[in-house]
Amino acid sequence: MPQKSDSSSHIILENADPRWERAAAWAKSLFFDRLGSASRPKLLLAVTIADLVSIVVAWPLANALLGNPFEPSWRSFAATTLVAMLAVYVLRRQWSYSIPSLRGFTSQALKVLTSLGAVALGISGVAFLFDHDEVAPREIAAWMELSAVFLCFVRSLAAWTIDRLTRTGSLVRRTVIVGGGQDAEDLIRELSADPTNHMRILGVFDDRQDARAAGSYGGIARLGTFETLTDFCRDAGVDLLIVTVPTRAEERLMQILYKLFTLQVDVRISALNSKLRLNSRAYSFIGRVPMLAVMDKPLSDWDRVLKNVEDRVLAALLLLLVSPVMALVALAVRLDSKGPIFFRQKRYGFNSELIEVLKFRSMYVEMEDATASKQVTRGDPRVTPVGRFIRRTSLDELPQLINVVKGEMSLVGPRPHATGAKAERDLYENVVQGYFARHRMKPGVTGWAQINGWRGETDTHEKLVRRVEHDLYYIDNWSVLFDLYIIAMTPVSLLTGKNAY
Q1: β-strand 410-412 against 342-348: which pairing, if any?
Q2: Which helix (H) or strand (E) holds 485?
């Protein structure tokens, strides 16, 4: 019997349509990373789009149920889309777009009803204020009621999906405990006893060298020392680090935190066994365990959704707008000197991973420097005549819009640096303490440092320090409006800047 089963499954696999297999693999890659973890931002984006579509579609359906004639028009579509965006904004203000909140259907249904009720009152108030009688109150009521049904269905489906992904381990917080001893054992026991934590503790990192440190803590294995922690977090996709080193060991704690500041993770210090009792508002809680928040990811799940949408939409529009300019630059590069139009260079990207950044070629092929070990200076003989112009005007950076559309870069962020870039013969990471902390966000085509005059050559330590300071300020203060301001000011900085050669 087993042989027959294996044979039949083998036949099914052989007869499977490769197109379906490719489609399934593509669909899986959209929502799951290389480790099999579900993407929280993409799940939230899916819920948001479903909400928007539900509210827009509910309008003609509500009219049909009321027996009213409905003639679709761009005006009605724009108006219903605006109302849908308003409803999503109100829901967002009630923390409806986060994975923890979407787990609870009942609370979400209440938020949907109150949000749509507020939107209905707002629409009715505007209609009354402007004496607009084209839309009757009963039509607004029917629209919001049907929207509520649709949105509750979306949340029911979202809660079921999140629960299923959590049970399979695809939507849990990948957690590491930093520090061992009794504190680590007590913490692991407390977290394991709470089924609402939705985390997977991957292991413990401890610097102790005694015999006990070689074992496990509450059934959780010791994975290594603090020296191997950073690389493990990057490779294993760690989301949360909980430090159990006592706060009285201040010097050791600072050494640990210094390493963690370069990672794209949330960092918490466990206060489970702490004798120090602060105001309850000073703590965040994971289950029943009080935590001191040390560092959060630069972008929350929802903020990552906003920035990704901003990047993809604006980059696609910009590509269309500048495509004639890019065609002319490509032609000029081809006619100016022999060699390829594009220059491809490995640079540090998000989470210090290497990405291939595109630029228009500005140097003679035989003089190109793939690692940027020697920076371009004024009158550099390696740069072609056309190259000098496109570097001075930053037209050579336009192909990086393709990197943005592909998701490798952002429109705004810290500029990606080449692997061998130096300031005064010193590698960047050896000049600025915590340099790699700027890689906690995707690199950008433009950035806060660039519009403040810190673009081009970084031939001194001072220039590099100032650039990194601006990059870290941007990471800590990110917002959509901040991005739009930087994008708007970039052309001005290109006209007034003098640092690019």
Answers
A1: unpaired
A2: helix 480-496
With a cut of 90, say whether residue 286 has pLDDT above it.
no
Q: Are 429 and 437 in contact (CB under 8 A)?
A: no
User: Both tokens of residue 422?
Assistant: 């130096």
Q: Between the CA of residue 297 and those of 33, 134, 390, 457, 476, what are the distances in Å?
A: 18, 47, 36, 30, 10
Identify which of 91, 110, 105, 92 has the alpha carbon closest to the alpha carbon of residue 159: 105
Residue 362 phi, psi dihedral angles, 5° rounding: -120, 0
* Burial label, 224 (beta-carbon count in 10 A; 0-12, 13-18, 19+): middle
Please say whether the beta carbons of 320 and 329 come within 8 A.
Answer: no
* Cα 230 from Cα 345, distance rounded (Å): 25
Full 3-state SS string of 115-181: HHHHHHHHHHHHHHHCCCCCCCHHHHHHHHHHHHHHHHHHHHHHHHHHHHHHHCCCCCEEEEEECCH
Residue 324: its pLDDT value, please? 94
Side chain identity at residue 353, one-letter code: E
Q: Would you tell me how many other CB atoms lie within 10 Å of the CB of residue 388? A: 17
Element (H, E) at 319: helix 301-336
Give the model confidence (pLDDT) of 102-128 as tens digits.
Answer: 998 999 999 999 999 999 988 888 777
| pLDDT at residue 12 in the model | 44
Are residues 162 and 102 in contact, defined by beta-carbon separation less than 8 angstroms? yes
Residues 6+ apart with CB under 8 A from 399: 326, 342, 358, 359, 360
Tell me how far apart the alpha carbons of residues 21 and 99 are, in angstroms, rounded to a whole number: 29
pTM, to two decimals: 0.76
